[in-house]
Amino acid sequence: xxxxxxxxxxxxxxxxxxxxxxxRLHSPKIAGAARPGQFVMMRVREGTDPLLRRPFxxxxxxAEKGDFEILYRVVGKGTRLMSGLLPGASxxxxxxxxxxxxLPAAGxxxxxxxxxxxxxAPLLELIERVMARQKxxxxxxxxxxxxxxxxxxxxxxxxMPGLRVHFSTDDGSFGYKGxxxxxxxxxxxxxxxxxxxxxxxxxLAMQYNVAKWALANDTLAQLxxxxxxxxxxxxxxxxxxxxxxxxxxxxxxxxxxxKDGPIFSAGSIKWNKILSQQTVPPTWPSN
Length: 287
Ligand SMILES: Cc1cc2nc3c(=O)[nH]c(=O)nc-3n(C[C@H](O)[C@H](O)[C@H](O)COP(=O)(O)OP(=O)(O)OC[C@H]3O[C@@H](n4cnc5c(N)ncnc54)[C@H](O)[C@@H]3O)c2cc1C
Ligand code: FES
Description:
The protein has helices at 28-33, 77-82, 120-134, 155-158, 180-190, 204-216, 257-260, 271-277, and strands at residues 4-17, 20-26, 39-42, 54-57, 60-62, 67-73, 90-97, 111-116, 140-146, 164-169, 176-177, 197-201, 220-224, 240-243, 253-256, 263-265. It is 23% helix and 31% strand. Residues 229-232, 234-239, 256, 258 line the site of FE2/S2 (inorganic) cluster (FES).
């Protein structure tokens, strides 16, 4: 599908907590074509400052109303300007971009969703769609972690009927004390829940741990990966990550997160190279 350039209208802007906001946009063409895991490049204000559009995932898609939502955290100039957009204002968008998550076949539960910080954003729409398809969600679990309770979205924001949610905070101020991937591994070690597939989004260091577990346990995992993006359409080559080539492990090959991703399987990335060279910033702000 060709990318769409559309002038969207801001419908709602809400501060959910701290620096985390929910933005609802009316953008019928993009909302009609969007799938969970894809993203838009958004111009956060008219003019050339900031020059570059910013990438944001679809956190909710309301195709029949022509709307979608972005859940975002203010981390710099672009997102700060974004948080000042009022209902009625407009914003230029390019999208939907990227490959999106591949939805599991009906009845393929149990499934695990793992979210670190604002990485919860693209998983919300995905979970909703998977639940609608599974018709009986007892085997779907969300593992959702942040640094502290103050940075964790309110429970009612992520709870859905039938979805079991495991919360963690690094400082133990809510839920399990420790990293989200540590909690996931602890739950796996208990043995009562074993996912046939994993969907995850969060900082690269978290994704590395998810990929490691998935590969060691022969479990399919779809990871939404981060990278700095200047163009979002494969033109600037700024979002490259080292790719693994199983048939030729020494080969130097790269994938572009914007065009080939942002969703990748656990085995398609050369994790050791990322970790050793830190070819990208360590995270898009996890919490
Ligand atoms: C495919 C994709 C989907 C995204 N979806 C969301 C989303 O749904 N919600 C959300 O809050 N954020 C999301 N992000 C991250 C978001 O694009 C950045 O936080 C935003 O562009 C920052 O813009 P800024 O001008 O406020 O910050 P800047 O002033 O540009 O940067 C502030 C800090 O954030 C870091 N940073 C900025 N962008 C990235 C990035 N892409 N990767 C790693 N570090 C970065 C910078 O290095 C710097 O340290 C997504 C990123 C990608 C690649
Ligand atoms: S952001 Fe330009 S090639 Fe990916």
